[in-house]
Amino acid sequence: MGLGGSWDSSPITKKDQIKAFDVINTALESNINFFDHADIYTLGKAEKVFGMFLKEHHHLRASIKIQSKAGIQLHEGALNSNRYNSSKNYIINQVEGILKRLQIDYLDVFLIHRPDPLTHPLEIAETFHILKENGLVKEFGVSNMSATQIDVFQQFSDVPIKYNQLQFSLGHSQLLHNEVFFNTENSVPFNNFGMLAYAQKHAVEIQTYGSLDKGLYGTGSLNSDLKNVADTRKLLNQLSEKYQTPIAALQLAWISKLPCKIVPIIGTTNLERIIQCAEFDQIDLSREDWYDLWTTSMGKRLP
Ligand SMILES: NC(=O)c1ccc[n+]([C@@H]2O[C@H](COP(=O)([O-])OP(=O)(O)OC[C@H]3O[C@@H](n4cnc5c(N)ncnc54)[C@H](OP(=O)(O)O)[C@@H]3O)[C@@H](O)[C@H]2O)c1
Fold first, then answer.
1. Nearest residue to 272 (alpha-carbon basis) of 301, 249, 244
2. Which candidate, 31, 35, 2, places its Cα nearest to that of 19?
3. Which of 92, 135, 229, 238 is most buried, most CB within 10 Å of its CB?
4. What pLDDT is stored for residue 218 in this prediction?
5. Looking at ligand 1, which residue's alpha carbon is closest to its atom 27?
6. pLDDT band, residue 222 (cuts 50/70/90)
7. Which residue owns the Cα nearest ligand 1 atom 10?
8. pLDDT value of position 181
9. Measured distance CA(55)–CA(46) in Å, rounded
10. Do both 125 and 180 map to the same domain?
């Protein structure tokens, strides 16, 4: 999301290009081979700069997985406000633009970025069929959608939804709250009941964004001195010593311990942090430490 420069219409500079190439090369050298895009990221420049990289490295196409999303229209109309659009013509047009910017013939995965209440699931099903039949997309998924929304879509379509990209992390664990606290006073008004259970039942891969909590436990802009945040930062530092691993890797290990298909997406463009993140699957985070991290980050005990 952070590649290609700033979120405006200025062109990609040589510096932006060098930065993006360094990030992609570092990811590849760290055995990260899955890249998440969206048509809106840096207003198309993230895909464009990735396409510039691919043009110079054709041979990599078959060994990496490229995903993109569409369905959000930024700053539209007199109100200059964001809208969602999953209508057939719009999505097909966006996918064609994505492929052009990335300089590739097909996407491994395409996701509808956010739910558009005005598009009937049948229309999305038809769009997916067209994209698949024309060889433009291999697999499909959604983002920011509930189990119910996926279930309803599947009533209208035989194209399987294989992915759901959602915000989930130590500092934003609502998905888990809804599985565990659904009938207690601790339940939160976040309408995604049962997504983890649904994912297990239907083999939907959960991709987590905000996985590093945007630096909440480090020096990022969200850095906070709230007690639960400060306590979690302290515990992460202790566990980093105990497991001899970086905090970023621990954050991802915490996410990936859930027993469903779960893939953390990282948004860091810091080369050192990318390398650190790649250590996550070598950590055998204990059950006790997983629970201590969860309850500390929530700042409350379990019932
Ligand atoms: N589907 C959706 O609606 C949606 C929404 C948002 C994002 N996404 C996707 O998910 C990816 C990840 O999401 P994200 O970027 O929001 O979340 P993230 O990976 O939690 O956060 C990345 C940001 O946090 C900073 N950061 C992380 N750890 C830090 C630390 N210890 N100290 C200081 N800064 C730190 C990074 O800065 P540095 O670069 O300096 O490390 C970067 O700016 C995005 O790139 C995008 O592909 C999807």
1. 249
2. 2
3. 229
4. 84
5. 215
6. low
7. 209
8. 85
9. 14
10. no
pLDDT at 192 (0 to 100):
57
Average confidence (pLDDT) over 286-302: 97
Task: Kindly give the distance from the C-alpha atom of residue 243 to the centroid of ligand 1, in angstroms, as a whole number.
Answer: 24
CATH number, domain of 175, equals 3.20.20.100
What's the number of domains the chain is made of? Answer: 2
Cα dihedral 152, 39, 36, 122, rounded to 10, equals 20
User: 209: CA distance to ligand 1 center in Å?
Assistant: 7
| Banded pLDDT at 183 (limits 50, 70, 90) | confident
Instruction: Tell me if 109 sits within 8 A of 140, measured CB to CB.
Output: yes
* Contact predicate 248/216, CB 8 Å: no
Backbone angles phi, psi at 210, to 5 degrees: 65, 20
Determine if ligand 1 sits within 6 Å of the CB of residue 268. Answer: yes
Q: Is residue 156 part of a domain?
A: no
Assess whether the C-beta atom of 155 lies below 6 angstroms from ligand 1: no
Q: For residue 129, how far is its CA from the centre of ligand 1 (angstroms)?
A: 32
Q: Is the CB of 220 under 6 A from ligand 1?
A: yes
Q: What are the tokens at 21?
A: 């190439």
Question: From the CB of 218, is ligand 1 less than 6 Å away?
Answer: yes
Domain of 225 in residue numbering reads as 168-303
**Of 283, 285, 275, 282, which is closest to residue 32 (Cα–Cα)?**
275
Classify 77 as helix, strand or coil: coil
Ligand 1 centroid to residue 132 C-alpha, Å: 30
Decide if 157 is inside a domain.
no
Residues 205 and 128 in one domain: no
**Ligand 1 binding pocket includes 1 (Cβ within 6 Å):** yes
